[in-house]
Structure formats: structure tokens, C-alpha cells
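Q: I'm building a small set of examples for a reading group on sequence design. Run inverse folding on the following structure and report the sequence directly after it, with nothing in between.
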């Protein structure tokens, strides 16, 4: 499972590589509540399984979400464990993945730069999940 985010400018509708990718890991799971909040506000979900297209009207929501994510990340230790799911078989156990604060901050900064680039080019952000 993965989520790829593409920058679509008004000049070009194609892109060969995603500008940002998330896996089903601690980074995505840490941000998921904030992604869900944006989805409830806009009807557009940043989701591992679905697609969404964000436009100019969405930039304020995304910027608020990313500012909140950065604040939350800065309050965390250098590394920590994030719950990513529950294994049911052969034995039930909770699953966790390690998140590194600096890597998370890098992902957030990249996402911010994408929103800024889309805004400056009258573009869109296309989120494509598996």
C-alpha cells in the first residue's frame, strides 16, 4: 500500500514521478488523524486506498494541517513508536513502527513546498492511493 502525491501545474497534466510518497508506516499513521481532519472538512481524503485532487480552495486547509503536523512533530523525541495496526493471526499483537523526527519534518517540509508550488503555478495536487 502506498500513496503518491503529484504536482499538476496548469502548464502540464503529466508527471513521470511522484513528488512525495507515503507508505503504510509510522509516518503515514502519525499524520493520518490530520489527513482525516482535512477529509472531513473538504470531502477529499489523503488516503492509502483512494484518490483525491486538491485545488486552490484547499490550500488554506492543507497549510493549517501541515503547520499542526510540524508543531506535533517538534514536540516528539528524536525517535518514537507509532501504532500501525493489529496482527490477528497467528497470534493477536499490536504492531508499531519507529518514526524519526527529522525524517517526519522533512516529509512535512516537502508537502509544504508542494502546496506552495501548486499555489504559485495555479496547479493541483493529485493524491493517488493503491
Amino acid at each position: 500500500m502506498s500513496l503518491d502525491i503529484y504536482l499538476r501545474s496548469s502548464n502540464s497534466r503529466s508527471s513521470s514521478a511522484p513528488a512525495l510518497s507515503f507508505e503504510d508506516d509510522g509516518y503515514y499513521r502519525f499524520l493520518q488523524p490530520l489527513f482525516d481532519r482535512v477529509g472531513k472538512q473538504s470531502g477529499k481524503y489523503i488516503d492509502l486506498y483512494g484518490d483525491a485532487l486538491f485545488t486552490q480552495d484547499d490550500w488554506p486547509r492543507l497549510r493549517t494541517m501541515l503547520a499542526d503536523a510540524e508543531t506535533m512533530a517538534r514536540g516528539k523525541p528524536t525517535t518514537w513508536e507509532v501504532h500501525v495496526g493489529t496482527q490477528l493471526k497467528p497470534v493477536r499483537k499490536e504492531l508499531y513502527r519507529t518514526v524519526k523526527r527529522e525524517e517526519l519534518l522533512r516529509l512535512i517540509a516537502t508537502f509544504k513546498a508542494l502546496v506552495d508550488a501548486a499555489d504559485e503555478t495555479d496547479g493541483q495536487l493529485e493524491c493517488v492511493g493503491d
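Helices lie at 26-42, 59-74, 101-120.
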